[in-house]
Amino acid sequence: MLNRIYQWRPIRFRLKSQFLTPTFSLLFTKPSVSAANITSDDEPSDPVREILNKASTSKDLFGNHSVRTLIPTLNSLQVDQIIVNLGLEDPDSAIDFFYLLRNEYGFCGSRVSQFVIGHLLAGKRRLKELRTVLEQMLHEEGSGSAPSLSELLENRFRAWDSNDLVWDMLAFAYSRSEMVHDALFVLAKMKYFKIQASILTYNSLLYNLRHTHIMWDVYEEIKASGTPQSAQTNSIVIDGLCGQSLLQEAVAFLQENEGKESKALHCFIQYTYVKVLYNVLIHGLCIAGSMEEALELTDDMERHGVQPDVAGNIEEGFMLQEEMLSQGFQLNDIAYSVLLSSLCKRGQVGEALRLLHEMESTGLKPDVITYSILIHGLCKQGEVQEAIQLYNKMWLKRIFPNSFTHNAILLGLSEKGTLSEARMFFDSLTKSDLMENIVWFNIMIYRYAKVGKVREAVQLYEQIIEKGITPSTVTFNSLIYGFCKSRKLAEARTWLGMIKAHGLVPTDVTYTTLMNALCEAGNIRGMFEVFREMEARAVEPTNITYTVIIKGLCKQQRLQESLQLLEVMHAKGRSPDEITYNTLIHCFCKARDMRKAFQLHNEMLLHNLQPSPVTYNILLNGLCVNGDLNDADRFFSSLQDQNIRLTKVAYTTLIKAHCAKGDVCKADTLFRQMVEKGFEISITDYSAVINRLCKKNLTIKVKVFLHMMLSDGISLDQQICFVMLNAFRRVGDLTSEFELLAKMIKCGLLPD
DNA sequence: ATAGGGTTAG
């Protein structure tokens, strides 16, 4: 049967010269297999006889000086003669002689010598060495060599002890070397000679062929040959079927061949669940229109060796899942974790929590990993309180959090909670007996830096040094960021030096942070100096670095150069993102070039970049400031018509413009729209409108907005009250003035 | 077999 599978292409017998290293000035020029035409009966030539004589008289053949001097003069034929003769008398000497030639003279022996040694090793059950010798031979011969090697084995070694073992090992070695056709050929020969192949050889072949239909031929062959199967055999078949997306076949195979506790089943369940999950997610993303994410996920899937289904097989996936559940197949805890982690990555934490409960109700025990995945997911979604509840729950269950868990919580607290909350948790971590983690410090230092508390940041740095913890480049980057935020650029540069002093390397982030600060300070020359140092140190600029430079160029009105840099980015594959474009669009708006601004917006779409809400805010503001307000209105409406996501800023931008330019009715309408959309309205938003109305003495409208604001439950502040009082006074509206004064007294904004 | 983390640009 196996012969049928593989039709041999004509074999070209390859002449291979074998070389001793040139220092020994001897070439073996005989083709490898034809060199085999010797037997132990051939009359040995002189050096051969001499060495063999020495061997029979001396125990230590290779310590013998005259043997040593003879070796470099031997040719391939003579080596074969020695090994064959030694092998008959004293196998150990033959093996030692072979290793000596190989290790000290770089000579591997002819195929005959290798097979002789192979048989001797097989006889001594030194199977690993046997495999190595054969693998080396196959490595030298390459694929397609099975017929010639088989022929040699067949003609010259048929009667040798351990010949069966060598055949089997030859097939195994071919299979392991991924020369599958050769392995099949050897197997076919073995079958012809009625030599039983071992299950190891079969499994290896099965594994190599598991993604082809030939797998079944091998499988049938195993069954027919009566070779006892190993536990691995079925797992390989299942793995292969899953890899070929033949899930129904896999189920059928399991039902026929496996109990419910088997390894093959586990292999299957995990595979299927991951696959079903991926497909459901991809399907969902396609429907939601996030093709990019869907494609990303498909890549991810293929990287994990899972073939995605063509769209439409999702239903099948679900049915399969149900079928499996109805048959009493159970997910194990790890399969649940895989599922949970994928859901969390997609932001479907609620779904993940539901699964956690399902898991618990089926009697499975979530472990520290399960909990960490969930806690991390919750923190990423900003649901830190939920995460902390879960964290407490795992303590109650005596499942102890590890560094994964702690980092997630600290990061969540520092992002969503208050700084002092994060600090309390940080202190509790550093006070406990845990191994201290530089990442905890980095998180806190960055947070302090961000809010301008450089002193606290530096104190933490000093703690790091006192405790003997090694700071990372990120530590210094965050400190530099802090000094930049506090506009202490000279000190920021000092810390750049600290990186080097600690034997660390400044990164793109280091340089970009500094460059941005210099740019903000208007020191474009300084920015370019840092950029030159970055280049000199061969630190690759990122798209962020380029964006900063573009910002700098724009500041100096070097708009053409900034556009050129945009091209450079495209050319270098450092693709500009929406922030790059926003920066540029902002610059062109400022330069009152709305045409170019919109052209850049279109270019974004061409490059498949989704303009962000910020992009629209910039463009809207540009239209409000530079153009006709009607243009701004039209643009705004068209965005609304296309259901494009807008932020509150889009509304307030337009509202402010209408207030300032006098169309208060329009402003009023927009304001109500904004409220209806459910945006949270603050005193700043009301103040922005009221301020502008007061400036124009439109006190009637001021009273409308004041009323709206109070009924919205927003309390007054002193500043806006004085603005209104002045306006009421200017227009002579005494009643309103006194009413407002009374309100202020009530709120404690004025001493009565 | 199952998990991740800190820093830069509008």
UniProtKB/TrEMBL annotation:
PROSITE patterns: PPR
Residue windows of the PPR repeats: 274-308, 332-366, 367-401, 437-471, 472-506, 507-541, 542-576, 577-611, 612-646, 647-681
Record-level Gene Ontology MF annotations: mRNA binding
InterPro entries referenced in this protein's UniProt entry, alphabetically: PPR_rpt, TPR-like_helical_dom_sf
Keywords: Repeat
Highest taxon, organism lineage: Eukaryota
Cross-referenced Pfam families: PPR_2
UniProt similarity note: Belongs to the PPR family. P subfamily.
Name used for this protein in its record: Tetratricopeptide repeat (TPR)-like superfamily protein
